[in-house]
Amino acid sequence: MVSMRDRRTRKMNQYQRLVEHKAKIDYYRSGEGLFIFRNKTGGTLELPKPTSSGMTHVAPGKEWQGDDYYMALVHKNEAVMVKCLLTPEQTKAAKQKEIPVTETKLILDQPDKVTHQGTVEHVVVDAPKALNEAAPTVKKPQEDVLITEDPMDGVDILLG
Predict the structure, then answer these.
(1) d(CA 26, CA 23)
(2) Any idea of the CA torsion for 69, 73, 76, 77, to the nearest 10 degrees?
(3) pLDDT (tens digit, 9 = 90+) per residue, 111-127?
(4) Which of 42, 43, 44, 35 is nearest to 74 (CA)?
(5) DSSP-based three-state secondary structure for 34
(6) Within the chain, what is the greatest distance between any pair of CA atoms?
(7) In a 3-state reduction of DSSP, which class is residue 70?
(8) Quick check: pTM over 0.85?
(9) Which of 19, 80, 106, 139 has minimal CB crowding within 10 Å?
């Protein structure tokens, strides 16, 4: 975070302030883990941020999935944590072991092309095998053959 002294001396344009504001909101709204919560109130509960499925309102007694950001509702006695699916430590470990994006995902995300023959899908095909690696067979090694002994053999120089 930026100290108060830095804020006063630093001038930002509107775009920079907007980017910093969005970064702060994302930081405060970020959560880890995966839990199931239930609405404990007698009325519809309005969630402070949408869930991963996009739900923002929860009917009385209904359940929703969310991260530990919604624990604030548990402390306010508006919701009850029903079940813990993933702990925050497990999600941190999963993020550290995350597999990097490969080219297969990039190719498969392309929209399908429609041609006269029909729809063409973008699929990663395994590299074709080289012709000499198709079937290993035992062959006796060939002897080296010298094609010509004189490099100028067959070359005529014309002056003229």
Answers:
(1) 5
(2) -140
(3) 667 777 777 766 656 66
(4) 35
(5) strand
(6) 110
(7) helix
(8) no
(9) 139
